[in-house]
Amino acid sequence: MRSAFLYSAARTPFGKFNGALADVRPDDLAAAAITGVLGQTPSLDPAEVDEVVWGNANGAGEENRNVGRMAALLAGLPTSVPGTTVNRLCGSSLDAVMAGSRTIETGDGDIVLAGGVESMTRAPWVLPKPSRPFPAGDATAVSTTLGWRLVNPAMPKAWTVSLGECNEQLQERFGISRERQDEFAIRSHRLARQAWEDGFYDSLVTPIGALARDEGIRADSNIEKLAGLKPSFRPNGTITAGNASPLSDGASAVVLGSEAAATAIGHGPVAQILGRGAMALDPQNFGYAPVAAANRALARAGITWDQVGAVELNEAFAVQSLVCIDVWLKEGLHDPEIVNQRGGAIAIGHPLGASGGRILGTLAAVLKERRERYGVAAICIGVGQGLAVVLENLEVAT
Fold first, then answer.
1. pTM
2. Which positions are annotated as active-site residues?
3. Which tens digit of pLDDT belongs to each residue from 243-257?
């Protein structure tokens, strides 16, 4: 089969819940990401795009009716460019990239636009439709912002606990202290702030209105402030609003292509997609799933952890990130400091359907900046799943 390459990446700034992007529809956020990434490939005729593959975790509000197709139309792509939307919850946009890369490898297309979007602010409340007209009882509106909703009673209760409770269980299993979690969170804010000050994100982020930078980064975060926060899920728990990713709004996009697509795109690729991996566990263990997903992706790429120079791991919770890193260190990862060197989701934000595209674009940029050859992008996914992609930096490939 042919090889699949990453040519460019862009994203919107990530906004806080009820923040600067609260008035922006998710389909408009997605269109902005598409416009941004196509702006990095000005020689590319949008009509040459063979497919748009888009990720979204909600689909219950303004992003309904196939937001991938809607975003392409809103961004001004020709109506002849098809689009589809995939939902693997937090992994949706990374799943979109994986699907797009397979399209290229099999020869079904030469250029694929992949990405994802989420507005957690604008996620609607929904009402279950009654099975009979005019029910006598009350109806309850259910928030679609995050987590389980309208749960099937056949599901075991152990599977359907809150995401936070799942990670408190993970903390108990692996003994990750509150102090370690808080320190990891502070590192995320410090590195993200420094990345913006260094201009690292300037070429990756397309401003939306007055918002040009990620809104959730707290420059004044410190251990004393985080230690004072109350646990969010258990009275004596370890997870707080300070050491978990916030609710966020945003979109991300990448241009994928074959080697021959360089002519139409107007420049060469920056990285090759070498390996992909997916993993599934009991739903409550979702935070641990990136471990095996990354190992599978590395095996398929034909490399080992000691060859990896950069890792982008989505920081859904500090505890699950630390668990994954601890296990990878035992398996050959040589330095925990190569993980999220430019900050992570605890600081930047985690708009569910957009985060996979963000970490992949950041990974390509970090590999280029550090002149490292191989990198891993990995993400945990609710209901017990994880995804990972291995990139090779073509600037240093031999």
1. 0.97
2. 90, 350, 380
3. 999 999 999 999 999
